[in-house]
Amino acid sequence: MSPSTHKRFNTRAGRAFDVLNVLLLTGVGVLAILPFVYVLAGSFATELEITTRPFFLWPEEFTTTSYESILSSDVILRAFVTTVAVTVVGTLIQLALTVLMAYPLSKVDLPGRRTVLSLVVFTMVFSAGMIPTFLVVKDLGLLDTYWALILPAAINPFSLIIIKNFFQQLPNELEESAKIDGANELQVLRHVVIPLSKPVLATFALFYAVGIWNDYLSPLLYLSDTGKWTLQMILRQVTAAASLSADELNSDVPPPAQGIKFAVVIIATIPVLLAYPFLQKHFAKGMLIGSVKG
Question: CA 282 to CA 261: how far, in whole Å?
């Protein structure tokens, strides 16, 4: 920052602007986190407190009845394991297909490149719609299978274009040196392009994972077997119903009517929050610059 710029921001108006920014962002952050804190507190509160206190951030009496009902429920545990498996496999498949399509499209001399890119952009503006997509999934024999939750949205056009543009910015000298050493295109992609693209790949891997984890419309449309339901479908049923009995949950512990809803929301949210710190380090820029200078 130049001395003149520093002097401009060090004025009374500049300091007032900084204070207003901090206050505004702090307020937005508090408003964003308050609902989660309320749900977390409600998951540990008694049924009487939930029904009598309209809003609270700390329960007067802690209880783990809601979580005991969840942990003793075969339905919720099976849905949780199913959701984790579908999310992991789906993210890997969607990211792999996106990379395999983005890499050749990053080559400006690829025959038919403009036509393919035009079709990709077209799908961003005009989508097939719910009914045609359902008919395609049905004709492919994917109904009531987990592939119906992964393959219809295997390649996101927006993610494809961003990753393609990132690949185009990589220095051609790195790929040419690898080809001189005898590497083919797949080897260049695996050993040169992908290691240099960890920030953008980690970012879109998180986007793909969150999208699959939070998706409830696809299981609702394509899965008729309730035994294959994901956690989001269970969450939808729990929040939509007035209460769930112990028989419906296959649980030995009678669930509280409202506390179980809060607990399931927390169970469905925590995994995403835990996964974010492991991917956060890849969001920082500078890996490419360091590799090129080295």
Answer: 34
